[in-house]
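Dig into what follows:

_____
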Amino acid sequence: MVEYRGIFWENLMTTPSVDEFLAAYPADLQAIAQRALILSVIPDAIEQVDTSAKLLGYGYDCTYKGLICGIAMQNEAAPDVSVDDNGSGR
């Protein structure tokens, strides 16, 4: 167990890097992950991987309390939830 900023993390040393995490996803999904945009708006943000949630998190510390935003990665396209002319879903 590792202590980091007063928090004990069991898997801090086994968490993959962001590049290793993204390598598991198709190139088109890697390309649309807006990492550069987030880091340009919040340059001091810590970029972290949450493998169980399939999430890239951005915040000022390594806790959910300090989380500002995240990118949730999915292997499949989102379902079509558009609305037709009658106001009902397709």
Observations:
- The beta strands are 2-4, 7-9, 46-50, 55-59, 67-72.
- DSSP finds three helices and five strands in the chain.
